[in-house]
Amino acid sequence: MTTPAGNPSSPLSRIRIGSAPDSWGVWFPDDPRQVPWRRFLDEVSASGYEWIELGPYGYLPTDPAVLAEETARRGLRVSAGTVFTGLHRGSAVWDSTWAHVAEVAALTQAMGAGHLVVIPSFWRDDRTGEVLEDRTLTAAQWRALTSQTERLGREVRERFGLRIVVHPHADTHVDTEENVTRFLDGTDPDLVSLCLDTGHYAYCGGDSVKLVETYGERVGYLHLKQVDPAVLAEVRAQETPFGPAVARGVMCEPPTGVPALEPVLAAAQGLGVELFAIVEQDMYPCEPDKPLPIARRTRAYLRSCGA
């Protein structure tokens, strides 16, 4: 897929900025505490963004003609879809995984996007904290994760022309620097790229700039967010699950948290390739009037960084 580059006069000319339903408190296809999808589209456009993600499948219209009309009249385009997977469980889950992936990939392709964000399954429930499985994978589970992810990358590319970008995420098995590097070292760069989420990586103790500098050729996509260090220290000490941690404000409005986004964006620009950088400030649940002012301030802040 060919997409327009940023402003060539900008210091971050290769970075394409967008936002996502997540920044409007949207985690589920349907939830009464979430803003309606039309309001999300209206407000993300009013905030100055031109790119969006699909968010949880079924939140935005799944009819490509309807979604194309709704996004186009607001000056919006889709950068990626998102899927959740449990590929460390091996070939037994392939058919159910593919059924989910295929419907999301088909809509993503129809909207002209080129990426599919792949999020590993949670080892504990992100709302209740119930432990669902061991937080550490066995050697056999690691082999299943890497081989099945490569298979997913191959199938998605061949059938839909999309590139998968795997998203390290808190409370999953691909989270810390150790696990992210093990995952990258165990997968084929031609089939598997990374969606570096600056907030999740910091949440799990990682250094985003170091990752870009070390594994830059594997970084295919960015999610921009920050964590509040004080809240993070509390939730780590209390072993708080990710969902309640978000409700406590662990993910915060930039530039008030960490990591600093300017050096991350500069390192990404230095890779010499075009990258999406999608703002994702986890805020579930949130009051319906909260996201728009934050989105506007965040877009202004990123412009001040050159993006």
Automatic annotation (TrEMBL):
Any one Pfam family here would be AP_endonuc_2
Q: In what residue span(s) does the Xylose isomerase-like TIM barrel domain sit?
A: 41-303
Q: What name is this protein filed under?
A: 2-keto-myo-inositol dehydratase
Q: What is the lineage of its organism?
A: Bacteria, Bacillati, Actinomycetota, Actinomycetes, Kitasatosporales
